[in-house]
Amino acid sequence: MGRALRDGYRQKVFLMTKIDGRTKLVAARQIDESLKRLQTDRIDLMQFHEVIRLEDPDRIFAEGGAIEAMVEARQAGKIRYIGFTGHKDPLVHLRMLQVAAARKFRFDAVQMPLNVMDAHFRSFEHQVLPRLIADEIGVLGMKSMGDPFILDSKTVTPIECLHYALNLPTSTVVPGIDRLKILDQALEAARTFKPLSKEAVARLLARTAAAAATGRYELFKTESRYDGTVHNPQWLG
Fold this sequence. Notes:
The chain is an alpha/beta fold.
């Protein structure tokens, strides 16, 4: 990405990345490493990655915690906005917002799973999204196809998954692109998107309700295979 951003492209993009560090020391090192690898002097949105444990907010906001490095980096002009991501449980997101508010800190953006099955199980859409809208915090929707196990349920198509996510009051939807075919699919979803009627949303939710009930197609919520910091605890510092 750093090489791709050279020759004037940096001015044309909104650049975002994430860090795992929970202490000020580790977070500061990761911020500087990101700037170096991305070959830029500033990052538009830096997010605390994988806030998936109820104790993560306490570590981040503790004395000597990672929030201190983030705030100092913003004051120094290294980053513009601060956010956090997570995929495990809406209660963890709500606690992160609660701990931040208690310390009079307001996040600029929050990234979370938003898809046709999330609405039925440990729902970020129902529990977290209204809070973000009310507080005017940017919403980044991810895992619209469940990485991509929602498609294995044979209840919805990729375009339907993307259209559902785009229909929610988000700032942006992050589709995840690993090859040109997936890029073309995302572009087609954007080209063909029109706001869904209440009836259309109801039909999609009815079609996915049974498959979604236990979270078996949202494995990032129910298993640890996607928890990078579980498999690499040293990243947390």
